[in-house]
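ingest -> fold -> write
write: protein_1
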Amino acid sequence: MKVANSLAPESEIILSIGQPARDRRLTDKILGAFSHAYASDEIGVATILRRALEEVELGPMPGKAERRASNALAQADLWVEFVEARKAYGRATERQQADAAEIEESRRDMVDAYRRWSDV
């Protein structure tokens, strides 16, 4: 008996590709909050958190041994690309007369955006 797959497309992507490793840096915590806010469509909060991320990442380093550079801003920008691609995929699949080619293209765009984000 074949069981229908109940995972959302982004869940399937995460399972097949994996999630980027995170550690305990402040930038990682802000990035996590930013990602959640943006994905939840809390754009005002996401904007504030991105500014905080810039301040932490681009601000003066207390000592080279104390703090290593991160790529949190690049991850934030790639996350935005993924979320926007996911929204486009959702819009394509929700239309009454959805074009199969358009749906497949938007699905590929979403997978590619996730892959770029997870590779950083």
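write: protein_2
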Amino acid sequence: MVQKRDVVTAIILSIVTCGIYGIFWFISLTDDVKNVSGDTDMQSGGMSFLLTLVTCGIYGFFWAYKVGKAMSVAQQKNGLQANDNSVLYLVLQLFGLSLVTYVIVQSDLNKIAEKNGAA
């Protein structure tokens, strides 16, 4: 089950906590996308964070592309219009705008949660 999160609150918490909440949000997003898409090849949130840390951010580019593809599958599975934003997410990562990627992914996850009746 996907947890619906308020995007504005998540952004504020990420800024106020100097990125600590952003790490939690990254891990949660990754796990939610993996669960909702049913992608068994996708790494867990914790492993994705660790790989991003160990590779000095390089894995983050792959993560952004992979999450875009998985979100497209998740939207299709849940009867929503599928948007393949994988290239957009990759470009945002390249320009250091990973927080914007998180916002878009969370917004799409919230739509799926609303469709499935989550509060």
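write: annotation protein_2
The mean pLDDT is 94.
Residues 58-77 form the longest helix (20 residues).
pipeline exit 0
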